[in-house]
Amino acid sequence: MGFIDVIAKKRDGYALSREDIDEFVYGVSAANIPDYQVSALLMAIVIRGMSDRETGWLTDAMVRSGDRVDLSDVPGTKVGKHSTGGVGDKVSIVLAPIVAACGVVLPKLSGRGLGHTGGTLDKLEAIPGFRVNLSVDEFIRMLTDVGTSIVGQTVSLAPADKKLYALRDVTATVPSLPLIAASVMSKKLAEGSDALVLDVKCGHGAFMKSETDARDLARLMVSIGSRAGLRTEAFITDMDAPLGRAVGNALEVIECIETLKGHGPDDITALVVALASRILVVSGRYARPDAEPAVRRALASGRALEKMRAMIEWQGGDAGVLDDYARLPRAARRHAIAAGADGYVAALQADLVGRASMAVGAGRQRIEDRIDHSAGVVIAKKPGESVRAGETILELLYNDDRGLGEASALASSAIRISAEPPVLRPLLLGTVA
Question: Annotated active-site positions, please?
Fold first, then answer.
């Protein structure tokens, strides 16, 4: 059977065999299948879906496409963390040094921006000199020395996923439950952790728009991890509005540092504390009543900030950014989006804010696009806050005005004002274990 027959099989709604999936993943890894055929099968999967069994086979094939990190020489339980992506989601950058400061090792393979969501690696690369392409040996040594490291996939770890990830970003094939689950879990299984805590987003700014879809994705990933012997738990969290008040790479790095200094936005701080506390419990080093106090002590004492300094220095970055934000890229121009009436911010639609940030240069619309690390969106008014007509709600930061018109229209469309205070759903919506 030629690969075109595999595409047609899924196009027509039939299940793929394990052999079909192995052929697909091997062909992607070896560059034997052209991008247009890979993209065609990805689109067929988005439209027709995959069974849990197919998704499990896909995950396994992606893990087998490369090496697995052996962290057995790193002392203690290693707990991974992953978010399914959102707008303004910089939680990993804050979480990793907090967990390490509490004595738990947190290895982290992260990705680039995907669709309208930002990428952790892109954010960290806003720090001058920061290296995300550590070798596996460097990754292991850093985990031993610092207790955490956030890096990109090496060429040897789940290489099929790296290629698929980039293609999905530019072919409108991101929002697929099986593709998301296989991508996340192949990296996590290759990462070498002993346990995993997931943050599954739902809402306008997430790939899973409904809470039901988010729970389905969480259950699938927990099942994949558990069957592979990886203790896996998931949080379901809200992503209707952006997290924090910064969207864009250097802007989000500043917000991460401020959070580690104890001055972060309430929503970022609350989510970081909840996830970090659970990671400490899952590690087996902390009882449930002791975990949150330990996390808060790591923040208040400055130990978490110093772990961030050690992480930046180890990965070649300029740790002076922790004390002087002028060392980070800064946009030359600003454009305010103002309220048209008195009232309350009832909604700030996250996907539109994310797309506005991309339009001014903070993300990629094509694989070859270069990111402007200084560009982005600053949120002056969050949902639930009162506003007067003419007051700034969003501010666009940019250098090149070619995308300003599109960004302004998207940002304006994201805002909804109401006469009465809105009823907002909670940030933490539930767990799956």
Answer: 82, 161, 168, 183, 187
